[in-house]
Write a structure and sequence with these properties.
The protein is built from five helices and no strands. Helix content is 68%, strand content 0%.
Length: 119
């Protein structure tokens, strides 16, 4: 597996875990560790990952900044003392929507409810 493939898989995993948190699914020890590790890895790897988004050089830069922002948001959301108000929730969802539309335009990010109920 190449680094771009691993980056994409980690990003998909983080998107699903963040959406699960927004839907109110439990955050157990293992899920918490997975989110924190994935977010940290993405934040570190995004500058050197050779992702090409159609459009200008600025589009690629903005995409990478959105991924870094999502990793920071995911880290904050997984912590117990982070309040999720309506504006924060909308900001996270907007960021996810933009990332998905640029990198995964035909992918379905449905949540698997029975799987996510177990923390």
């Amino acid at each position: 597996m190449d680094s771009v493939y691993l980056f994409r898989m980690r990003l998909q995993l983080m998107i699903i875990m963040v959406k699960a948190r927004l839907e109110g699914y439990p955050v157990g020890k293992f899920r918490k560790e997975a989110v924190l590790e994935t977010a940290s890895r993405l934040h570190k790897d995004v500058p050197r990952t050779d992702i090409r988004i159609s459009g200008s050089k600025g589009t690629n830069h903005l995409f990478k900044e959105r991924v870094r922002l999502l990793s920071v948001m995911a880290t904050a959301m997984i912590l117990d003392d982070y309040p999720l108000g309506i504006h924060r929730r909308e900001a996270v969802l907007d960021n996810i929507e933009t990332i998905v539309s640029l990198l995964f335009p035909e992918q379905d990010f449905s949540l698997y409810h029975k799987i996510l109920q177990a923390a």
